[in-house]
Design a protein that fits this description.
This protein is an alpha+beta fold and 300 residues long. The protein has two domains: 119 residues, Aminotransferase class 4, branched-chain amino acid transferase, N-terminal domain (D-amino Acid Aminotransferase, Chain A, domain 1), CATH 3.30.470; 154 residues, D-amino Acid Aminotransferase, subunit A, domain 2 (D-amino Acid Aminotransferase, Chain A, domain 2). 27% of the residues lie in helices and 30% in strands. The protein has eight helices and 17 strands. Strands 8, 9, 10, 11, 12, 13, 14, 15 and 16 form a nine-stranded mixed sheet that branches. Strand 12, helix 6 and strand 13 form a beta-alpha-beta unit. The radius of gyration is 19 Å and the shape is globular. It binds 4'-deoxy-4'-aminopyridoxal-5'-phosphate. 4'-deoxy-4'-aminopyridoxal-5'-phosphate binds next to helix 6 and strand 14.
Length: 300
């Protein structure tokens, strides 16, 4: 079957899209992107928190001096069209904004045009099959640089060189993913997920300073408020993670995933855990089962 993509204002076949090997973004990691999910629900296919993802895309784009020539509403329309054209329901949507000119020039000039592409493909989840068993995390030997926090608060492709190395290191050591600390040994986030711990019935997560403000993270905060579970942002140490009752990570591609091991420390996964309460509530939201959460779903 033909795969269609959105490319600078038009829907074209994937194999008709061409990008120059001279592309600045390829050489210097200057692209910005998003990761968005759509789900098949009993009420039809819906994109989860689409507007917020596109607002974050715009923020990342502005940060890197792009000017996206479409409004948020136009982008919403394009995403929905893309899913329809490709007959997709449970899918991952990846908008990417990039510079194609001049791989040598290390500054933005007027000649640089903002390119935008949207691709979408079927997706089950990063850690599909590990929802009930949980995943194993290692502490990355790589560090997040504590300055330039704003760079890591945007979804800039160059940031993911570090994520790529951290997750590869984790895989080579038989872990599923890695948690990154900064040079002050404060817990930041995983390669592409935010991290949370639970102690004595309360949920804690690192403050947004040098980490991506995750949309699933925000969802967890809102679910905690709904379920009357205490939620707090703070500076988090590795010791606090190690001494926690439960750990979980969140991201669009992974959902909410429990952690069963951090380094050598094993975590018990009880049926009536707070993590499970949040996961069940999250599933009811993405499956359009509760009226309260329909506001998060953009039906196509
Ligand atoms: N941190 C990083 C570095 C990420 O790439 C992601 C995935 N976008 C997240 C956290 C989680 O963000 P979200 O819940 O918005 O997908």
């Amino acid at each position: 079957m033909k795969q269609f993509i959105f490319f600078n204002g038009k829907f074209i076949e994937l194999n008709k899209a061409k990008i120059s090997v001279y592309a600045n973004s390829l050489h210097y990691g200057t692209a910005v992107f998003e990761g968005i999910r759509s789900y098949k629900t009993s009420k039809g296919t819906a994109v989860f928190r689409l507007k917020e993802h596109l607002i974050r895309l715009n923020k990342s784009a502005e940060f890197m001096h792009y000017k996206i020539p479409y409004s948020i509403n136009e982008l919403i329309f394009f995403v929905k069209e893309l899913l329809k054209k490709n007959n997709l329901s449970n899918a991952y949507i990846r908008p990417i904004v990039f510079f194609e000119e001049n791989c040598i020039q290390l500054h933005k000039s007027n000649e640089f045009k903002t390119n935008i592409a949207l691709i979408a493909f079927p997706m089950k989840g990063f850690f599909a099959g590990k929802e009930s068993t949980g995943i194993k995390l290692m502490v990355s030997s790589l560090k997040r640089i504590p300055f330039n926090a704003e760079l890591f608060e945007a979804k800039v492709s160059g940031n993911y060189a570090l994520s790529f190395l951290a997750r590869t290191e984790a895989k080579l050591n038989n872990f599923d993913d890695a948690v990154l600390l900064n040079e002050k040994k404060q817990v930041m986030e995983c390669s592409a997920e935010n991290i949370f711990y639970i102690k004595k019935g309360k949920v804690f997560t690192p403050k947004i300073k040098g980490i991506l403000p995750g949309i699933t993270r925000k969802t967890v905060e809102e679910l905690c408020s709904k379920l009357k579970i205490s939620f707090k942002e703070k500076t988090v140490s590795l010791k606090e993670l190690m001494n926690a009752d439960e750990l979980f990570i969140t991201g669009t591609a992974s959902g909410i995933i429990k952690v069963n091991q951090l380094q050598k420390k094993k975590f018990k996964l009880n049926e009536d855990s707070i993590s499970n309460k949040l996961i069940n509530e999250f599933n009811s939201a993405i499956n359009a089962e509760k009226k309260d959460y329909l506001k998060w779903l953009e039906f196509i």
